[in-house]
Amino acid sequence: MVDPINLNDALDRIQSFIDGSDLYGAVEYLRSLHPADSAEILAELESEEQAAILELMQAPELASVMEQLDEEDMADMAQHLDVETLADVLDEMEPDMAADLLNELEPEQAAEVLEQMDEPGEVTSLLTYDPETAGGIMTAPPPSLRRFWTVAEAIRFIQEQYRDETQFYYLYVLDRYGQLIGVVNLRSLILAEPGQTVEEIMDRGVISVRAAADQEEVAQLFQRYDLVAIPVVDDDGKLIGIVHVDDVVDVIEEEATEDIYKLAQVSPDSEIYSTIPRSLRNRLPWLMINMGTAFLAASVVSLFEGTIAQAAVLAAFMPIVAGQGGNAGTQTMTIVVRSLALKEIAPRDTLWALWHEARVGILNGLVIGVMVGLIAWFWEGNPYLGLVIGLAMLGNLVVAALAGVGVPMLLKTLRIDPALASSIFVTTFTDVMGFLLFLGLATYFLSFLD
Fold first, then answer.
1. Model's pTM, two decimal places?
2. What are phi and psi of 240, to 5 degrees?
3. Pairing between strand 229-233 and 239-244?
4. Contact 120, 95 (CB under 8 A)
């Protein structure tokens, strides 16, 4: 049994080996850990320390460690290995992980490594697919069954051909042309009579995915049908690969991170340790766009300079109206963007979503509007000020609800990623309409606010 480690303690122990020039002790300690823990420790080391330790490790153990890293960390680690060693490591890795690593290398270096590999065929075939598709994350299919075999023949075939425990998720059945026609649960095979045929016990309703399908769509199929593996077929329905659940876990993390970053208008490849120039490239353009929309809101305020001059107290309440509208719009927008990503709703559901969120916005507006109105009344001793801000809050929360639905739906219809651009436009709507409603009502009731 392997117990979880304390990363800080493990790093301290590795560092003590390195400081004592006992690199062999460091390697032996890493060998005693789970590959995932070893990978995390190696990724934290300085480049020179990492290179020194990698030099003492064998290709199979390097492969098991590197498979636990993301693509960028794998590529960084690969730079410490010569071409022959890296080729040996890739031969030991799962083909999909090897393909991911090669995609991160310079084309010339990748070609040189492929030439040195003993068995580059499976990896080369994966490189023809987009890395973010089912074809890009799949592995080679396991040996498959034929429908006319008996259960006894199928079991004997499995004993002879299957060597990897991960192949036992499901047993796939192909026809003479290599087309996927069914799937057999291992439990069903074991409990069946030896003389029964595979066709009698197989399930023809096998769930599969095309090689060109986006990896996010693949992840959604795993979630919807509680799968641990899914077959990948070509346009002719022929089995060409398998996507395993461990590959999909990585995809879910990548897609969730990407959506979170996009909602904040940050590049999906942003990291806290990014270089200053890279961080500026990722963030500054969106800040400039936000600055433009902020000037639009400011121009609305400038239309009411006379009103604000005569009732300066309005300036104290303007951020409340805009801020609450922005928060409400972000709530609705986040729910809609996530629902679109999970395919729970589509643009055709816009009217239903608008009706649902409008009712939520009205109820939220009534509650928040009354509360803010009463606070403003008692704070300034003017019921008309409470009326103005209460009505403005009600109106802006309804606007926020409608914008939170309408903007992502419109962007989706225009084939623009809603996660990337929604928040700018939703915030602009709530700021502009919040100021317009509040200051417009204040102008109408100005004689009562002096």
1. 0.59
2. -125, -10
3. antiparallel
4. no
